[in-house]
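Good day; I would like, with your permission, to put a structural problem before you. What I wish to show you is a protein chain and, alongside it, a tokenised description of its three-dimensional fold. Please examine both parts with care and let me know of anything in them that strikes you as inconsistent. Thank you for your consideration; the sequence and its tokens are set out here:

***
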Amino acid sequence: MPSSVDYVIAFLGTLLEVGVVVCALRRRVFRRYFFLNLFVVLDVCASLGRYYVLKHEGLLSPAYSYFYFYSDALLTIILFFGLISLYAYVFEELNVESYIRLGTIVLLAGTAVFSYAVVSQASGRLSTHFALELSQNLYFVGLVLTYILWGAVLKLRETRALLVQLVLSLGVYFSAYAALYALSNLHSELFTHYLHNMVGVIGCLLPLSWAYAFWRVPDEARLVPARLAAVPR
């Protein structure tokens, strides 16, 4: 069963996610960053649902496994669209929004097909394995896309402080989760016993960063390009 530390981390993460939505509504940027806010809203709902299933069915029950992995896959997809929405803002002056939408559909479909192909020969809970594989692959794709976006931020000399912080926070988040998935694949027992709480801690850092950005970073705030990097054009 989960320890008291697990419950404290889960409660703190939920509280921070509520704070993100409150700060976004206060700043009137909820619609502008819709998918990011949708992610935290659904994550709160998923946390409450997981607690309910955990309490009534137990940690090792099939119901909890299905609910956990499929809710995680859904949240990862929503966060993936949140990342793509940041692409649209960075490249908004180039009028390539239609290409970004098309690329998003192709990447998402390709990742889903690849994930199914990986687990199609597996026995047992194929659907659960598919949800886990899809989330893992989307984290890796999100990691690559975030670094590409950061390269575009540097190249285009993007100076909007709020947008830059959102991109950086996603980079840290995707990097951390991709690393945790890699560690779990190398040694699942080590992941279960020593890295479990890190998942919750990392889950708290993202809403903390977003809440701070929506609360403290003004819309008109700009960064000095030299503070990002000296990238030759």
